Amino acid sequence: MFPQKISHFGKTIKVNRKKVSRKPKDFVALYPGHLVAFDTIERFVDGCRRYIITFEDIYTRYSFAWSTTSHASKAAEEFFELCRQIFPFSFEFVLTDNGSEFKKYFNKAVLKAHLTQYHQDNLYILRRLPFFSKFLLKCQCQHLLTSKGGQKYCRH
Q1: Which domain range does residue 122 map to?
Q2: Is 54 strand, coil or helix?
Q3: Is the dihedral angle over the CA atoms 27, 29, 35, 38 positive or is it negative?
Q4: In a domain, 58, yes or no
Q5: In a domain? residue 140
Q6: Any residues with CB less than 8 A from the CB of 17 and at least 6 apart, and which?
Q7: Integer Rg of the chain from CA
Q8: Number of domains composing the chain
Q9: Eight-state DSSP code of residue 100
Q10: Considering only CA atoms, which of 92, 93, 97, 94 is closest in space to residue 120?
């Protein structure tokens, strides 16, 4: 059975969906940069919508977060390039969810870097999101936040 959509005339139309690659169940990060994860959370601050994009290296648990007003894939691509510059190890596999912010420009940047992108809910990052959201929104900045071994600071 194929996914179908019904047009305004009542005629059924086949919907072409792109297959996404899933992370293998037995995949284990073996060294820094082997698997990195990205995720986004939405928060409201004083009536303004803020998006917190997070990065985490699964092996070392080193993480970054960035607060922005845009949910577009261009913002996620900009954060991806920033993480590639700041993180001292090269990436091999990228783990994201199926969010729209990780499509178009972000996907192009991953392909341009010759990396493999897996799609799966990021339980790794979901544990850190409450910390990142509380700290970044309290600080009310758009700068990078890093966390390593319990250290918390905002880089201005």
Answers
A1: 29-155
A2: strand
A3: positive
A4: yes
A5: yes
A6: 3
A7: 17
A8: 1
A9: G
A10: 97
pLDDT at 9: 81
pLDDT digit string, tens, across residues 4-37: 777 778 888 777 767 777 777 888 888 998 989 8
Residue 145 lies in a domain: yes
Q: What is the pLDDT of residue 63?
A: 83
> Residue 28: which residues within 8 A CB-CB, separation 6 or more?
none
Q: Determine the angle formed by the axes of helices 73-86 and 104-112, rounding to 10 degrees.
A: 30
Residue 27 token pair: 């995949």
Pairing, β 12-14 against β 93-96: unpaired
147 compared with 78, residue with greater pLDDT? 78
13 in a structural domain: no
The whole-angstrom separation of Cα 34 and Cα 53 is 20
CATH code of residue 34? 3.30.420.10
| 8-state DSSP, 67 | E
Q: How confident is the model at residue 49 (pLDDT cuts 50, 70, 90)?
A: confident
Please state whether beta strands 63-68 and 144-148 pair in parallel, antiparallel, or not at all (unpaired): antiparallel
Beta strands 144-148 and 116-119 are unpaired
